Each structure stands twice: as C-alpha cells, then as structure tokens.
Amino acid sequence: MSSADASWVGLEIRHLQALEAVAREGSFRGAAQRLGYVQSAISHQILALERVVGTTLVQRTRGSRRSGLTPAGEAVLEHASAILARVRAAQVDLTALAEGRAAVLRVGSFQNLAALLVTPILPRLRAVLSVGSVEFVEHETGHDMQTLVRDRAVDIAFTYQPIQQPGVAHAELLDDHYVAVVPASSLAARRGRPMRLEEVAQSGLIAHGPSRSRIESELAARGISTTIRFRSDNNATVHALVAASVGCAVLPRLAAVSTPGVTILPLDPEDAVAPRRLALAWHAERGGSREVTEFVAAVSRQAARVSEAVATCAAVSESRRRA
C-alpha cells in the first residue's frame, strides 16, 4: 500500500459529517451548532480530513462572511454525501431489524403520483417484495429526485427525463401532457373545447409551484402576458382557487384532479407546453436487485393502465363535444 493510500485509512465518518455541515451552514460555528459540537471540534475534524486527502477543502474566512468549499472540497463533498446517505440508510435498516421489522423500500415521489401509480398496486408489491413497508419521500423537482437516488437517500424515485446525475439508471414511464384547469362555471367549461394558452392567460393564472417556471417561460416565449392571481405548491390549494373562480391553472394531467367546481380541458395544441417525461430512477448499483426489478415492472404496468384511462377519457370528452 502506498503512503497516499495509507493516509486514507484514517478517514472517519465524523470528518465527512463535519465537511457536509460546514457546506450547508456556511461557517464552522453553524456546523458546530448543527452537529452539537463545540466550534474547535469542527475545526479539528476538517483539519484531520484535509491531512487525510492532502489538500485544503474549506476556504477560511473572517467575520460574518460564509466559509465556502474549495474545488477539491466540492469534489470530496459529492462523495461524502453519498457515503453518509449509505450510512443513514444502513442505520434505518438495522434499526428496523432490531425492532423486529422488515426493511423499508424508500420511494421518492411527486404529489399525486404515489396515489395514482403506487397505492393501487401496494397489495401486489407487498406480496412480491422482501420489504416490510414502502415509505414515500416527497420532492417537487426531477433534479432533487435524481440527487436523492445518487446519494442513496431513497431506493427508487419518480423523476423527469433527461437523467442528469451520474450513476443513475432509469426506465421510461409515460409522457404527462399539460392541461388547462378551469372553473366549472366558466364559459370555457361550458364550451368544452381545448384551450389556447392565450385564453388561459386572459383569465388570470393560478400558478402551481412545481410547474410555474415551465408555464411562465412558455408564456414569455410566446409574448403572452398574464396576471398571476395566486402561487401555491399545493395541488389541493390550486384546485380550490380554480373552483372559486379566482383564475385558471395549467397543470400536468396526472396532477389535475376531477373535483367539484373544476373542469379539465386539453390545451390547443396538445403540446403547447412540452409534456413532462416521467421515469423511474434508481442507483445503477441496485439495478439487479429484486426490489427494483419488481417495483419497476409493477409501476410500469400501472402507468400503462393510467395512460389508457386518460386517453379513453379524452376521447369520450371529444366525442361529447362534437355531438
């Protein structure tokens, strides 16, 4: 073993925790408070880590300025986050075993997707998976989901294509087109025909947080101005505001729910806003595991059923409109 390799034997989990805490808090003092240490302990752990890797990882600052990581520090942090995520996952699994419970399958999901694509098949999943339960972790952006997968904070996750994180494998599920959600009492609902973005904009927009940037960018690219009536990250709030005739919304079809007071209409043209391309993602090293294989197969079948149901509903609505 070379001297360089031997130095890495001294690497400790607490060193990586200290680096992660400094990166998140922006200071040694904040990192100490986060981990429950005195500030000098954080300084010693960072120094010990720098001796192990042989280079400076943290830019020391004076006063109230934030302490940032050097390029080397950023590189080590990426690996540290993955290592710490594995340690935390191991802790969860061992705690479950110690308490007499089977392991947990951690699934990253967006609002509504778990209910639409996982809940209906849970009995089947429990029958074929060697886990005690399925635990959902919610985030609203595909990038966040891929980071969770990369760092092994979740076992598998719903995400958007393209896949941007290294070491993440995926399976395509479906294209989720955007639709207009309008008050059931509105003229647009009574007409029942697809809506142009200009028409939606004229009614004022209830901006859905996860979709907001994409919708607003599309409107701006087309030179369409609108008034944002309200912004919310919560699907139920968006639907309630539309039902109260505060404005209209543009949502992915799987996020749009048929509830009293709202009508769901396709956009004209259907791809006026590029659909979100849904996929399941998992760490490449878990690709051969039975849990991932069975989960992907079951969810893919459910996604096909949902896609068929959505297409049938759209065809029926179009037939009624023409009649």
Walk me through this protein's architecture:
This protein has helices at residues 3-8, 13-25, 28-35, 39-53, 71-98, 113-118, 122-128, 142-150, 187-191, 197-202, 209-221, 235-243, 290-322, and strands at residues 104-109, 133-138, 156-160, 168-176, 178-183, 205-208, 228-232, 249-252, 262-266, 276-283. The protein has 323 residues and is α/β, with parallel strands linked by helices. Strands 2-1-3-10-4 form a five-stranded mixed sheet, with helices on both faces. A three-stranded antiparallel sheet has the order 8-5-9. The chain has a two-stranded parallel sheet with strand order 6-7.
Structural class, please? alpha/beta
**What sequence of helices (H) and strands (E) makes up the elements?**
HHHHHEHHEHEEEHHEHEHEEEH
Mean pLDDT: 84
**Order of neighbouring strands in the sheet with most strands:** 2-1-3-10-4
Q: What fraction, in percent, of the residue positions are helical?
A: 40-55%
